[in-house]
Amino acid sequence: MVSEHSDAQDGETAALALKILVAGGFGVGKTTLVGAVSEIRPLRTEELLSEAGQLVDDTDGVDQKVTTTVAMDFGRITIRSGLSLYLFGTPGQDRFWFLWDELSQGALGAVVLADTRRLEDCFPAVDYFEHRHIPFVVAVNCFTGARAYGAQDVSRALDLDRGTPVVLCDARDRDSGKEVLIRLVEYAGRMHTARLLDSVG
User: Fold this and answer.
1) Which ranges does the record mark as transmembrane (predicted)?
2) What pLDDT sits at residue 159?
3) How far is it, in rounded angstroms, from Cα 66 to Cα 46?
4) Contacts of 150 (CB under 8 A, 6+ apart)
5) pLDDT tens digits, the chain, 201 residues: what are they?
6) 3-state SS class at 189
7) DSSP sequence for 35-74
8) Can you give the pTM of this predicted structure?
9) How far apart are CA 101 and CA 13, in angstroms?
10) Whether 122 contacts 158, CB under 8 Å
11) Are 43 and 69 in contact (CB under 8 A)?
């Protein structure tokens, strides 16, 4: 979580920048989401898939994908005056998960993108954030041609903790992505406030 304070003498309000992770399985739309909502040109660390990677990367269901994120994606979006989000998209393949610990340092919360055609691919991300008590929402990326499932169906299938939000979205659409991020900030804010009250109580 990064805080930026402006000069109070100028009459400006303090600006707050929050760190958000965008996680999920390989090919689920993390890079697409960060690129769709970012108001700056997103930083991407994509490389072409290689023959060597075919032995370790599961590309079932994403046969058309030709690139992969090898470190992170980065973007920024202003939610309202004085509140910006710094978005860090995590790499999806197992072999890059060692980067998650570094990326998650100081994060307010996370978006776990899910594809109902390969729902099991987001289990590692769900487990990661649950075990580290990092608030997260599950955002179901509604791919064309995929069978539609309701939020409750997805919540039960993933065995989510009670109250964990599940939202439907289109990762290509800026407004849809922004709604997911607002939902996360609201949820994470409630979670952090409740923990603070518990600690002082």
Assistant:
1) none
2) 96
3) 10
4) none
5) 655 544 444 445 578 999 999 999 888 999 999 999 999 998 866 555 445 445 444 555 555 544 554 457 899 999 889 999 999 998 866 666 678 898 899 999 999 999 999 999 999 999 999 999 999 999 999 988 888 899 999 999 999 999 999 999 999 999 999 999 999 999 999 999 999 998 886
6) helix
7) HHH-SSPPB--EEE--TGGGGT---TT-TT--EEESS-EE
8) 0.81
9) 32
10) yes
11) no
Centroid of chain to Cα 79: 16
Cα torsion angle, 112, 46, 48, 98, sign = negative
Distance CA 188, CA 190 (A): 5
Which residues does 132 contact at the CB level (< 8 Å), separation at least 6? Answer: 104
Please tell me the distance from the alpha carbon of residue 34 to that of residue 172, in angstroms, as a whole number.
9
Which structure tokens are listed for 139? 């955002």
Angle separating helix axes 174-200 and 30-37, nearest 10 degrees = 100
Angle at 137 between CA 58 and CA 127, to 5 degrees: 50
